[in-house]
Write a structure and sequence with these properties.
alpha+beta, Ubiquitin-like (UB roll), five-stranded mixed β-sheet, two-stranded antiparallel sheet, 2 helices
Length: 76
């Protein structure tokens, strides 16, 4: 299982603060595509961290990892 943490407006859109994704491994891009299809969220501008380190779309996520989905922050 991969643990996914959702922040800011994503919590409201998805309806949960945490998700468990049943995969042994997949890329960041594959995870975002799956979440976009399942929850109809926009993933283009999300910042993704895997185990508290920023991740690129090609980076591999494995079972036991924690992924944080961080929406862009605006304000002044």
């Amino acid at each position: 299982m991969i643990n996914v943490l959702c922040f800011a407006h994503l919590k409201e859109q998805i309806g949960k603060e945490q998700l468990e994704v049943a995969h042994e491994k997949l890329t960041v891009k594959q995870l975002l595509n799956e979440l976009q299809e399942k929850y109809a969220i926009q993933t283009d501008a999300l910042i993704v961290a895997v185990n508290e380190e920023y991740a690129d779309p090609e980076d591999l996520i494995q079972s036991g990892d924690t992924v944080a989905l961080i929406p862009p922050v605006s304000g002044g």
